[in-house]
Design goal:
With 429 residues, the chain is an alpha/beta fold. It contains 14 helices and twelve strands. It has a seven-stranded mixed beta sheet, sandwiched between helices. The protein has a five-stranded mixed beta sheet with strand order 4-3-2-5-6, with helices on both faces. A hairpin with a 4-residue loop joins strand 3 and strand 4. The longest helix is centred in the C-terminal third of the chain and has 30 residues. The protein is globular, with a radius of gyration of 22 Å.
């Protein structure tokens, strides 16, 4: 027994060191620390070796591929980001994204397999994003995957993009079902209880603009890409960077949907407020052309605070709703943050303050795994492969689904409970 413990401890230390070197400090856990797991899983295939899954992601503007095993090890990974190109073009143009996916997908997949030091024949399955996303982008990944599995005689597992984001935290952290997840990205905003790998209960969804879209359009209107410190950054990254030097209370707070007692999201109003505030500042300072308003940092900080305030209120109501409906345990609850906006430190820290009042810890993957990547697709495929669910029977009939809901929608039920929210301080000062 002691020998087994010492071997496992040594193995844990070695793998943690490898993870830190390759992917940063691993999974970030806010509030409470949850130990890493899946390093010493005794499960094997019938041949006594590990299960290996290749994941392919092309739902939007990143071409990603990765190979993971059933322990949660990332054996090989590659990613081609189109961010810089689309920033210069003023937004994502679907045909351009499609062409860039076509140009890079073969090399990205080959790089992931080569870095994993395996051959395609050693894979047990291929997982690919088929829903939701940009139709032209999704099609590139699916067509490539179909050809790949036919050539190498492997099963194909179609993946729901948002499901993969939600389950990413299970790969490297001891997050057990059920848990609450918030997906906030450039194309989605979703709040759901995750009861199983393919069992989701939606209690909040986006009604208009996604938060990442609001960030990007606000950054574009502020002309942040013209600032040297924002060169090459996405709109969200640029706003977060400038907001660090701003005052989040410089402008009057305009709460969104404060009179509507549900968990749905609306970021169109926040975006509209920012547009109006920018236009007013430009008029008052006689700014034209490429000029940038003098209070740009304050506006970015206030914009972020408004986004945080809206998210926090929705999550607060969700936790109370889950108490009333027994969707989550009363103690040791977990909120998993996923999606590109979840990498925003200000948003994470503010949500931590709110969740601390409800015995709820926050789990957030490392920044690079919050955005779209092949790892999350591979891991979702692995969980499905292990359960024997969702494996395509006829890949020729498989097609992309650009718009696709997730799980069972109980969002309307939240409003009927008319849950009132106590005030919680989200800022330090």
């Amino acid at each position: 027994m002691n020998r087994m413990f010492s071997v496992r401890s040594a193995f844990d230390r070695l793998r943690r060191k490898t993870l830190n070197r390759e992917t940063g400090p691993g999974l970030h856990v806010l509030g409470t620390f949850r130990p890493l797991r899946r390093w010493f899983n005794p499960g094997t295939t019938r041949t006594g070796r590990r299960l290996l899954v290749l994941g392919i992601e092309t739902s939007c503007d990143d071409t990603g591929a990765a190979v993971v095993d059933d322990l949660g090890n990332i054996l090989g990974e590659a990613l081609n980001s189109q961010t810089a190109i689309h920033v210069e073009m003023g937004g994502i143009i679907p045909p351009v994204a499609r062409d860039l996916h076509k140009k890079h997908i073969a090399s990205v997949v080959n790089s992931a397999i080569e870095r994993a030091d395996i051959s395609p024949q050693e894979l047990d399955a291929v997982a690919v994003t088929v829903k939701p996303g940009l139709a032209l982008s999704l099609s590139v990944g699916l067509q490539f995957s179909k050809q790949f599995v036919k050539e190498h005689q492997k099963p194909l597992i179609p993946i729901h993009h948002m499901e993969a984001h939600a389950l990413m935290a299970r790969m490297t952290n001891s997050v057990e079902f059920p848990f609450l997840t918030l997906l906030i990205s450039g194309g989605h905003s979703l709040l759901a209880v995750v009861k199983g790998v393919d069992d989701f209960v939606v209690i909040g969804k986006g009604l208009d603009d996604a938060p990442g879209e609001a960030y990007d359009k606000t950054a574009r209107r502020l002309k942040l890409k013209l600032l040297p410190q924002c060169s090459g950054l996405s709109g969200g990254q640029a706003v977060e960077l400038l907001a660090r030097d701003g005052n989040p209370q410089a402008f009057k707070l305009h709460p969104v949907m404060s009179q509507i007692a549900d968990c749905n999201f609306s970021f169109a109003g926040i975006k509209a407020w920012a547009q109006g505030a920018i236009e007013k500042a430009e008029r008052e300072n006689d700014i034209e052309g490429d000029g940038i308003i003098p209070n740009v940092a304050d506006l970015c900080a206030t914009f972020q605070y408004m986004v945080l305030h809206h998210l926090a209120k929705r999550i607060q109501r969700a936790l109370l709703f889950c108490e009333l409906t027994d969707l989550l345990p009363l103690k040791d609850r977990v909120l998993v943050l996923s999606g590109g906006v979840a990498s925003n430190a200000f948003i994470r820290n503010g949500l931590l303050k709110m969740c601390s009042h409800y015995d709820c810890s926050i789990v957030c993957p490392p920044t690079r795994l919050c955005t779209d990547n092949g790892v999350m697709i591979a891991w979702n495929g692995m969980e499905r492969l292990q359960l024997g669910i969702g494996i395509a029977d006829d890949i020729d009939q498989l097609d992309v689904i650009p718009k696709c809901p997730l799980g069972v929608d109980r969002s309307a039920e939240v409003r009927r409970h008319a849950i009132k929210l106590p005030r919680i301080k989200l800022l330090d000062n």
